[in-house]
Amino acid sequence: MFRTWRQRVTFSDIMVWIIGLAIGVVVVWGTISTIQSGKYSAESWFDLIVKGLALGGVYALIAMGYTLVYGILRMINFAHSEVFMSGPVTAVFLANALAASGFLNKQPLLSILAIALLSMLVSMTVAILVERIAYRPLRNAPRLVPLITAIGASFFLQYTFRGFYGSGFQAYPTIDALAGSWKIGTVQLYKTQAVVIMAAIVLMFLLYAIVMWSKLGKAMRAVSEDREAAALMGIDADKIIVFTFALGGAAAGIGGILYILLFPIAHFYMGFIPGLKAFTAAVLGGIGNVPGAFLGSMVLGLIESLGPNLFLDGLGIPNASQLKDALAFIILVFILIFRPSGILGERTAQTKA
Amino acid sequence: MQNKYTDWKQALRSGLLGGAIIVLLSLIGIVTAFNKTFIITKVLTFGELLLLGPIIVFSFVAIRKAATKSPGFLLLTGAIAGLASGLVLIALVGVGQLINLRAMFVNASDDLYAIYSYNQTLFFGMILRLAVSGLTGLMTAGFFRLPARIKQALGQALLYIIMMGLMSKLIGTVIASWGFVSLLFEWMFARSGLSIVGAVVIFLLVGGLTYWRYGRPKARLVRDPKKQQLVRWGTLGGLGILILLLPSILGMWFSEILDNVGLFILMGLGLNIVVGFAGLLDLGYVAFYAIGAYTIGVLTSPELGFFNMTFWQAFPFAILVAVAAGILLGLPILKMRGDYLAIVTLGFGEIIRLLALSDWLKPWLGGTQGIQRIAKPVIGIGNFSIQLESQQQLYYLILAGIVIVAFIAIRLRDSRLGRTWMALREDEDVAVAMGINHVATKLTAFAMGAIFSGIGGTIFAAKLGSIYPSSFMFLVSINILSLIIVGGMGSIPGVFVGALALMGLPEVLREFAEYRYLFYGAALVAMMLAKPEGLWPEARHKLELHEAEAPPPQESEPAATSA
Amino acid sequence: MSKRLFVVLSLFVAAAMLLASCGGATSTYTCTDAIGCVTIAPGDPIHIVYALVVAGPNESLGIDSRNGIEIAISDTGGTILDHPVQFDGEDTGCSAEGGQAAGTKLAADPTIVAVIGTNCSSEARVAMPLFSAAGFVVVSPSNTAPDLTEAGNPNNYPGYLRTAHNDKVQGAVAAEFVYNELGLRKAATIHDGSLYAEKLQEVFATHFVELGGTITAQEAVDPAQTDMSSVLTSIAAGGPEIIYFPIFMPAGGFLIRQARNTPGLEAVKLMGADGLFSSDVMEGGGAEIEGFLVSSPLTQGAEYDAFVAKYQEMFGSAPISIFHAHAYDAYMMIKAAIEKVAIVQSDGTVIIPRQALRDAVYATANFDGLTGNLTCTPTGDCADPYIAVYEYHAGQYPPEVIWKP
Questions:
Q1: Is residue A94 within 8 Å of residue A118, measured between CB atoms?
Q2: What is the pLDDT along chain B (563 residues), one digit of tens a residue?
Q3: Cβ contact (<8 Å) for B260 and C101?
Q4: In C, which residues are within 8 Å of A271 by CB distance?
Q5: How many domains, chain B?
Q6: Which among C224, C261, C262 is the nearest to A273, CB-wise?
Q7: Domain definitions of chain A by residue range
Q8: DSSP-H helix ranges across B376-436
Q9: Which of B23, B293, B487, C182 qualifies as a cystine partner to B457, CB 3.0-4.6 A?
Q10: Does C53 touch chain A (CB under 8 A)?
Q11: Residue A288 and residue C39: Cα distance in Å, rounded?
Q12: Chain C residues closer than 8 Å to B465 by CB
């Protein structure tokens, strides 16, 4: 702090800023030229924003699993995408049975709750099993070792569920109550998206409340702060870790059902991409941080949805939406250049990870 | 008898768990799929082994945990565990008869029930299954009671039979290329699995040898230290010659596996510098692999027709581009740590792949349709030149690459630069405070890693002759990372062992067709649980993990001369 | 080496030699075929393999084809010329490197008579040189890239045939249908980064423009992508009357569902190709499937219905893509050709001359298959060019045929 800025700013810093600036300029330039071209109507923008927020809401619920586990164990739970997948691919059978009996459209709310509950239970069980078998024996191993067992568990789970239900695609039945849209002025608000956004916000708040104010949540934060000290205070760390996995799994299971409301086809490979995105979102928001996961997810959802059309279209890049994920990662780099520990980054980035 | 009662419960629990695992395997479909894959032809199928294996394992666990070791008690424990497993299977079949399980679990088919009941009527068959399960548990207990020497001999013999039976096809492919010699072994293998004679021979041979060697100290052939040195050099030389001859001994198919393993060793050595030495978690290592491959593709392919260079003309450019990319990636992440770094590198890998795939860059990079007709390397001059085309020829190029890269990696590790990397890995703040330039250190790590990966990419492109963006998925990065950790982080021999285990394994597991990733995943978990420090750990890391049990560390490396 | 070990080993080798000398039947037939023969002793199986993608994200393609072959084998009693059929194979992973690994392994096995595969054209380009050199006859159920059967193209190898439709055929039929039958003039296309989809939409676009139509956009999605909003919004800006997306599930299902919910695309027509012909699509498309068009071979009638019923019974689910029928036909064609050229000896030994087998498969004409009437061209295109257009209706499978050439 006592050095002048001349000493603190090095050549590499300048290079990094140039890279960041270049990304910024391209994005702004692309945005301006897209808007000037007037190719897209206001309705389209509204539609994209709503869809982006809905997607972000789902990412947020999955990201919870990453962020909670990271907070406690400082590890990336790569098997979480399979935890997420296991719920919806199982619950589809209940959903189809309900649809066949006609109950689904008679009692849509009750049915969705039942489906979500089943999905949650399955995901939770898988999360707990993974922790028990693949992580717990490695509690004191080097940091990257559980990463590899996570990858192994991820393969195993994918092909287990493939073996159970076959490699076909299982479609969820249509829920009449959620079909269609509300017309607000000139824009259409689709019921599914609205429900997903609201549900995601409510659930995120609930999770936040559990983490912040419940007894278990407090114990969880204590363990994440300092496991030994927490143990001295009489907190059973193993129990709390299981609880963390269960909570993350449950969030992923419910998130899976919200995801299915948006994209109603289940498949054993469906977890990989959302899992990766949610992990990205968790990092973007500052990993280990619950509101950060929410914010990061929303930002990522919006970038994915709006990005290609808003930033790239105006630059004359053909087929811009093919680069949607590339764009998301570039923006991630852009944000991390200026905030190296995420939007709401916390101390974990400063301590040695 | 409180004790007796609790053990009874323990046996039941183990048996039920074993049964649950059998049901899991059945519902995944492995049992049905491998019902026609014989381990010993016409005697034992792999499917049946999967039905009996868990019973053996779990009744063994129950017996091991048993409080009393009296023979009668142990036999009872084993039988109870076996019967419990059998009951779980009966329960599954029962449920399957009541409701149509297949609407959910595609593998809960009548075929499965038929396998369970040995193709008998369901009622009689299931009683038979129960009896066999109980008997298996009983026999496990009996086995446990055997004298250690016989136990070991028997166990080894059975293990070998199962291994040889499972890999009989693979062994067959190798032997088939040996011409006359193949006749010597033909009688040991049937169309599927070992022949009965083969199984008996292996049983006698392995069992006999183990029995005979039991308890004998390993005899040293040469006691004279001078001669020992000679023997060591001889072994090394022999090994070297063997490595040179491998492609011709093992044939085309194994050369393909060796090539793939070799490519991953090359890249593993590079990533080992970034992750193992410098401690920078890079999840996008595939990017440089892609960059190497694409540079060669763009520069040599006559289909795109920009440059039409030869492989060797394009090679230096590929390395240059890889280094440039390494530095470009290195710059923005200098300030990031741990998992932030991981996600940005992951993103970098994806960005490169998506750019290669994009319609935007299609005129230059071929887009979806990839690049074809990539030049193969030619070595030699004039009339004595040879184009390396087949996997057997490319093996030597890869081998040469590995030798050079491994040499560089070893020299770097022991150099001043290597020690700065490790200082950075251990504690970045302290390292910087000690005057290490963390910018240059990190960037050189990235650049070195990029070069090695780029070389891997160029050979990959030449080997396939055509490249597609789909070859450069995130999974490749994960595989390379896995192999260096499975091998032992920061350990150079570990990279070799890890690559053999992880890249060789899926190829060997091809026998399991669509289930090979399932076995691969399970093997990955099992390997890390068994040896968290890796298969061939770096001495320093091993000490860290086993600090409590290890004797005071002995300095095996020469003491550092500079700060 | 210790003495005892040496004794054991030499006994082992002696026993081996003794046993080896006992076996080995002598054949009276001398093979005159240009690329060799496969001799199958009495009781030994005829070895036919698959090289399909049966593991990984694209596996539904290969598993479906493999199921088709297994049904064909079961339909013919599991035998060819009274020899049992040994059917196994390798996963190709739908990638060039997977194709090379599988190809190398299979090419090393001299007992193989024929290969059914590959699924993806990228695999074929790498694996075909190996198969071709090994003397196999290869019939692909789902390669569609034009270069593989183009005379004079280096990627056209001897011994390669396919029962799938060349992109050139299907893309052109789709374009003509849209232009002439539907009378639409503005189209957009979407591909998923697979060689199949990219080529097919390109042929469609070229042909459509030649006919006089306009292509408003040529976009792309990722096969694992679920949120299609940005690509659809971008397409909507061009105001097309029809979107042609010859891709696969699940991306195809998501496009069907989301297209109607995109401002500006409420009334657009949607059309896919044979990759989107399966009951999964019907279920995955939900209510929005109504009116979705696909081009596909004419696979209707009692024969196909019986096939689907058998599929359900054997594998516990409805067919998961369309290429099972092509694979079924591929097996049947190979079987017919083997029966035509094989030399059966009095003791039951079967000798299959490889070049003659290839010639016989190439000479297949008017073969009555599930996918129509198959006649192979000299470069290996066997599919019936008779492509129909189907229209999906919610809850109805198979879809309705609305146009036949």
A1: yes
A2: 445 545 778 888 899 999 999 999 999 988 888 888 888 888 888 889 999 999 999 988 888 887 676 778 888 888 999 999 999 999 999 998 888 888 888 888 888 998 998 888 888 999 999 999 999 999 998 888 888 888 889 988 999 998 888 888 778 777 777 777 777 777 788 777 888 888 898 899 998 888 888 777 766 666 677 788 888 888 899 999 988 888 888 888 888 889 999 999 999 999 999 998 988 889 999 999 999 999 999 999 988 878 888 999 999 999 999 999 999 888 888 778 777 888 889 999 999 999 999 888 888 898 888 898 898 888 887 777 888 888 888 999 999 999 999 999 999 988 999 899 988 888 888 888 888 888 888 899 999 999 999 999 999 999 998 999 989 999 899 999 999 999 988 889 999 999 998 888 777 777 777 788 898 899 899 989 998 888 888 776 555 555 444 444 444 444 433 43
A3: yes
A4: none
A5: 2
A6: C224
A7: 10-349
A8: 391-413, 416-426, 428-433
A9: B293
A10: no
A11: 66
A12: 126
Whether residue B119 is found in the same domain as residue B261: no
Peptide bond into B295 cis (omega under 30): no
Chain C contact present for A104, CB below 8 A:
no
Q: State whether C253 and A171 contact (CB < 8 Å).
A: yes
> What is the distance in angstroms between the CA of the first residue and the CA of the last residue of chain B?
67
- Write the residue in A52, A159, A171 that is nearest to C283 by C-beta: A171
Q: Per-residue pLDDT for C88 more than 70?
A: yes
Please indicate whether, in this complex, the C-beta atoms of B464 and C104 are within 8 angstroms of each other: no
- Rg of chain A taking only CA atoms, in angstroms: 22
Which residues are within 8 A (CB) of B12 and not within 5 positions of it... i.e. 6 or more apart?
B80, B81, B84
Q: What is the pLDDT of residues A195-221, one digit of tens each?
A: 999 999 999 999 999 999 999 999 998
Q: Which residues, including other chains, have CB under 8 Å from residue C310's CB and lie 6 or more apart?
A: C71, C74, C75
Tell which B residues from 387 to 426 touch C, by Cβ distance under 8 Å: 391
- What is the domain range of residue C195? 168-297+388-403
Tell me the count of B-C CB pairs closer than 8 A: 122
Pick the CATH number of A10-349 from 1.10.3470, 1.10.10, 3.40.50, 3.30.70: 1.10.3470
CB contact under 8 A, C105 and B209: no
Tokens of C137: 């006859």
Closest CA to A269 of A159, A171, A164: A159
Q: What angle do CA C377, C141, C384 make, to 5 degrees?
A: 45
Using the Cβ of B176 and the Cβ atoms of chain C, whether some distance falls under 8 Å is answered with yes
Question: Which residues from chain C sit within 8 angstroms of residue A39, using beta carbons?
Answer: 237
Residue contact A158–B281, C-beta within 8 A: no
C20 domain-assigned: no
Which of C17, C19, C58 best tests the B interface by mutation, with the highest count of B CBs <10 A? C19
Residues 6+ apart with CB under 8 A from A287: A66, A67, A70, A71, A293, A342, A348, B339, B340
Token digits of residue B539: 């001495």
Q: What φ, ψ does residue C185 adopt, rounded to 5°?
A: -120, -20
Residue after which a domain boundary falls, among B145, B177, B195: B145
Beta bridge partners of B517: none
Asked if residues C225 and A277 have their Cβ atoms less than 8 Å apart, the reply is no
C134 to chain A, minimum CA–CA distance in Å? 32
Rounded Cα–Cα distance for residues B451 and B161 (Å): 45
Residue owning tokens 């999955």: A62
- Amino acid making up residue B168: S
- Which residues from chain B sit within 8 angstroms of residue C84, using beta carbons? none
Domain containing B65: what range? 1-145
User: Buried b vs exposed e over B9-47: b needs ≥16 C-beta within 10 Å?
Assistant: ebbbbbbbbbbebbbebbbbbbbbbbbebbbbbeebbbb
Interface contact C95-B471, CB threshold 8 A = yes
- CATH number of domain containing C280: 3.40.50.2300
